[in-house]
Amino acid sequence: MAQRGGEVAAKRTKLSSGDAGGVGEERLSALPDDLLVLILLRLDTAAAAVRTSAFSRRWSRVWALLPELRFDPAPDGRAIRGILDAPEAAALRRISVTTEGARPESAAAWLPAAARRLSGDLVYHNIAAPPMSYEEEEKEAGEAVQLPCFEKATTIELNMGFLGLALPPQGVFARLTGISLRCVRFRSPCELGDVVSWPRCPLLKKLEVHDSRGLDNLVFIDSKSLLLIKLKALRSLRKLILVTPHLQELSVIRIFLHLDEDPSEPVANISAPQLESLEWNEVYDPQHVHLGNLRQVQWLITNYFVVYGSPRSRIVNRHCLRLLQQFQALYSLVLTLVYKQDINDLQCLMGDIAMLPQIRFLHLTVLNQGHAFGASSFHLLRMCTDLRELSFGLHANGNMDSTCPSGCICDQPVSWKTEALVLNHLKRVEIFDMRGAEHEVTFVKQLFIWATVLKKLRIRFDYRVSESKAREFCRALAGSSRPETSVEFYMYDVSTSSTYLLAPEGHGTGF
What we know:
Strand content: 25-35%
Shape: globular
Largest sheet: 18 strands, mixed
Oligomer: single chain
């Protein structure tokens, strides 16, 4: 053991005594700087790269040439600041910091140093569970982190773990093209719209704000450069105003959570004449939500539609219907159908959908709770005779073996199985999370009848479906498809987190 310890000590001495010219003593030090930098980039963290400076005088300056620094997990904020403030350090194209349950003073310690050094991307993730109630949030809020102005940053991605964040009241983010803010508790005095608008962000293309607090009154954004805006779960926003002449994609999801179904005043006023893609999962009434000219929109995602419900459900559905009525033609429509668990005492509301825009691609997300979805899908498909592609995403909560109670009304009217429907443009169908239930077999068989020119059907089974169950489903469809239709079945392998093609059994499947 003593001999082995002596050998290790000798090797360390040899490594640490090398210089730039000591090729015989330390071969690594003889490598060019760019190769040494590549070696350091493969280390786990920036702190590990900095520790290599103990090897020799040559190594003491190599880490400072790194184009990016990663702190995962991060040391104390003051330690990060010390590394970023090193006088020999060069400009950085990327800084990535990951913390867990950090306090505001930790982030506040290193962010100003990062602003001075960064000429590229900033990524900060503070992993923390959100408080359970508003009172707990306020109690745990603490001091706000002052965000400095990153004059040379190109993208900023902050997940604050619900720490308070005060935006900089002055300064220009001259090179910033994208900003993503998640789990942020915004603090005054500066408003979000003031920072991301023209001219303080003259090159900003992409703005995302998710799961955040503090934007209670008004978000007003005036930008000549923004192409994409995604706003989700902002909790209590009262009004949104966008003046974005070049905006192409807008996503608004649950940001007016304080509002009743019929607000008393306008909640959105949006000017985006070049908008092509719109996701509006929110209240919608043309009197209170002004979306401007929608003639350029080709991709639409609507609010959900309750298939069986009470009179109150009909009020909720009205927001989806009103938005659909604004369009005569679309390239793509994403529509979500929601089934409640117990529907036998509820009214079928599908008849309220009297028309759909002319569309080429339809994606139905079906939260069916194990209920049959053939009748509701048929109701929609007979309004989509120009359809080229069809996609289903099935989400049936609960036990894999759960079925509807006897006499359930979900498959009514049963006439959908015999009524004529010709989808003579539909060439491609994809169905996700199939469970292999009998009502799913019935629906797929009807698809083969309706889609007279179907070229490809791809079915992906739910990850909980066994291979034997999947093969039983395949056998049930045997002989139903046309010879010119390619049918593929995919299974999910949990052990590898990947999908694989289910090979047919023998020659009896018909596919």
